[in-house]
Amino acid sequence: MMIRSFLTLFSLFFSISRIFAAVQIVAVENFYGKIAKQIGGSSVAVASILRNPNQNPHEFQADAATVKAIASADILIYNGLGYDDWVERLLRVSGRPHCVTIKVADLIGVETGKNPHIWYNPETMSVLAARLAQILNKSAAVEAFEKSMQPLREKISALREKTFGLQVTATESIFGYMACSLGWKMLNYDYQQTVVNNAEPCFRQSVNFEKALTEGQAKVLFYNSQVQNPSAKRMQSIAKRHGIAVVGITETQPHHFPSYVDWMLWELSMIERVLGLK
Predict the structure, then answer these.
(1) Running DSSP on this structure, what letter comes out for residue 221?
(2) Which of 38, 37, 232, 225 is nearest to 143 (CA)?
(3) Distance CA 202, CA 222 (A)
């Protein structure tokens, strides 16, 4: 009888301790981790794997610490679309039956082969925030999150009104979704996707890209400041010689920005400056 009572008390204590323990969330990309912390607050502990804005995320290789972090996760968030497919390889080997896995690309219905930089679409973050709030039973957090997103939506709306139809180009497809939100026409998309897929652009793609710069079709050239290869540097050099604004952006959220919104607002303000709108 005493043993049974002890086991009952132990079970009750264990259940209560789990209720009050922080939910362990592992986000492969740090901008998703920022959203998770914003929704979960003090009830979650968030660890992000890709968090260095000076590192090329495409060259990341999982180590023992990465495997251990994922193994400890109650909730795992990753991008999908080939951007972080090493996660799926780890999951196939180790298996995480009790872990809630959020593949953001599936969450928003983007198919394989599409531009993987889906976090540059602010609506992606709203969908992720709503899903996390549902899992964590934090429905009130969604309203607060959407309120925090309002300055970004207002900035996009104002910039779209001033620059709708602007033609831009990029050495990679990072800025594609934001350009779409702004009502801009992104040139040389085939070139960008070839680079993202770790292939060399063909002669025709390179010629068309150079023409967009030398003939003044593109008004802004975006490049990935985390990845500098000879081709990207050459395109930047051509753009500068022809008076085209050159803007470096990151695909990992820099540490000094406390939130996703702060990061995006800073980049949009930088674009406003180079376009002479600010």
Answers:
(1) E
(2) 38
(3) 20
Segments of 145-211 assigned E as strands: 167-170, 185-186
Q: Tell me the DSSP string of 48-69.
A: EEE--TTS-GGG----HHHHHH
Query: What pTM did the predictor assign?
Result: 0.90
Closest C-alpha among 253, 252, 205, 201 to residue 230: 201
Average pLDDT of every residue of the chain: 91
Are 115 and 43 a contacting pair, CB within 8 Å?
Answer: no
Please state, as a whole number, how many other Cβ atoms lie within 10 Å of the Cβ of residue 164: 11
CA-wise closest residue to 218 among 192, 234, 242: 242
Neighbouring C-beta atoms of residue 209, cutoff 10 Å = 25
Task: Name, in order, each residue with C-beta under 8 angstroms of 218's C-beta and a sequence gap of 6 or more.
Answer: 167, 168, 169, 187, 188, 212, 239, 244
Chain segment 54-108, per-residue pLDDT in tens: 788 888 888 999 999 998 899 999 999 999 999 988 888 876 667 899 999 999 9
- Sole residue written with tokens 């531009």: 115
Q: Are 264 and 251 in contact (CB under 8 A)?
A: no
The number of beta carbons lying within 10 Å of the beta carbon of residue 107 is 16
Nearest 10 degrees: CA dihedral of 61, 198, 222, 80?
-60
- 271 neighbors 168 (Cβ within 8 angstroms): no
- Percent share of the chain, pLDDT over 90: 76
Nearest to 24 by CA among 133, 99, 105: 99
Q: What angle do CA 161, 163, 169 make, to 5 degrees?
A: 140
Judge whether 81 and 31 are in contact, CB under 8 Å: no
